[in-house]
């Protein structure tokens, strides 16, 4: 089955020579949830804007369900829903009219049942006759999603959808995305909240300086690049690692109160038993020992840091 969204060698440059996107290629399967992570200015919003027809690409191709975004832009755009970062709603309009209007913009016939279903799923039905200005910030974000879904798109872009909302509402949003997946909607999410990507995404894409550094299954990525650490908390503060332990890959943390040992869980021997024996031999008393698995955030930070070093 061909991908629902195919991006090939996409570039976006400006008159001053700045390249916002550099040869980006990406394929996304129908019903998939993919999280696109990157620091500010990495190109996340430019990528979304280009796919959605807001920004013209310099070169490359993008197809949505086989429709080219330039040659067949009406068909391609009708399949896409976009939830932007900014809340830009008519403050004196009613919620239900705002959503109906968005459906009409795409030439869709009026279907009150579709609008009602969307508003109910987003917990907005009891607010349908409220003016937008009467809603909280979180409810306004829900209206943005309702607007994006009003024309029944197959691909949904969420550009920082939970920025500025509380943790409870953020988790509600995650549940909404899972419901959309059940309906066959493909979701591309950009976020600064790493735990958001870790919680709901099937695959993770990392973008930095306009380039895709990787796109990989979330679980495989964490298994491949995740590290495990042994943290040995000491009863005595150290100013440096003793020479007797110099053969180990150790770092000193917690202002000298902790020895940190990174190891590969796939190796036949981790070296932990010997390390703990040598720590005791060095005359150091242990206060506590614990292990820690690196998170998606650790992996993301390492990738972006490595990319920055290569560019400098």
Automatic annotation (TrEMBL):
It comes from the Bacteria. Keywords: ATP-binding, Nucleotide-binding, Transport. InterPro entries: AAA+_ATPase (IPR003593), ABC_transporter-like_ATP-bd (IPR003439), ABC_transporter-like_CS (IPR017871), ABC_transporter_ATP-binding (IPR050763), P-loop_NTPase (IPR027417). Residues 5-234 form the ABC transporter domain. GO terms for molecular function: ATP binding. This is ABC transporter ATP-binding protein. It comes from Tateyamaria armeniaca.
